[in-house]
Structure prediction request, 300 residues.
Amino acid sequence: SRLKAVLAHAAQNVPFYRELYRGAGIRPEDIRAIDDLRRLPVICKQDIRRAGEAAVTPLRPGEPPRIARSTSGYSGEPLKIWLTPAERRRRLLREFRALLAIGFRPRDKLAILGPQHAGPRGWHERLGLFRTRIIPPALTAGQMLESLREFSPDILWIYPTVLHPVAARAGWKLSRHIRPRILITSAQVFRPLYRERLLADLNSEPFVMYAAMEVGRIGVECPAHEGLHVDADAVYVEILDGQVVVTSLENFTMPIIRYRLGDQTEWIEGECPCGCAFPRIRAPAGRDADMVVLASGRRA
Prediction:
């Protein structure tokens, strides 16, 4: 299976995991079923950062140059992630699959407002299909608003904190400038009052995309709006003490195995009305470090 292949590769070729599993007295061949994965140690960002190059598969002669990406740093110090071009392409294809699932049509225009990396235009965009514009947050609020108005997107994909100054610049009347059919949020929790105010103005259909730079797309809200479907063919998700622990089934350059993200969520049982068989989770309610315990014992 893909999980066994990742585990065997990490134990044999990545010094960090080789020493980690040796210290725990575990061999890859001991992992024969998915439940056996629980025998492996849970790691976190600090463990990967301390390991440095030891957490990365050594570069082989003749191997194509690798691509460096960094986590946003929204919840702390950024972490550099290494991918091969093929691993990067697979991530992009999964993002495209998620966009198609929520209604991205060939003639739609997609604007992304957040720390994304602009790449060269694909052949499809030169034909006027699936047009995409990335608007960097380094621009001023006025410049971002002008770019949105000029592009007039059908789908707007945002980091909530990046859009906030733009909405404020528009006097919380973005609908005077753009009227996207779909509003996607990711990376950060969309606070309820802010969300309600924005949606009341735009009247867009909202969707949540859940991802982490360490593993790529984790889940996407389906059109039934009854939770997020996990990309179970690319990531294996556990929820331990209410927190997401994720294992990538695709990362071989920089394996991510039983990695605690700290996002708070829970499983949704039963079948989804949309018909998708992938398991569902609730939209993450924030990172554990962002939570406070109320007098009632409830976390918020």
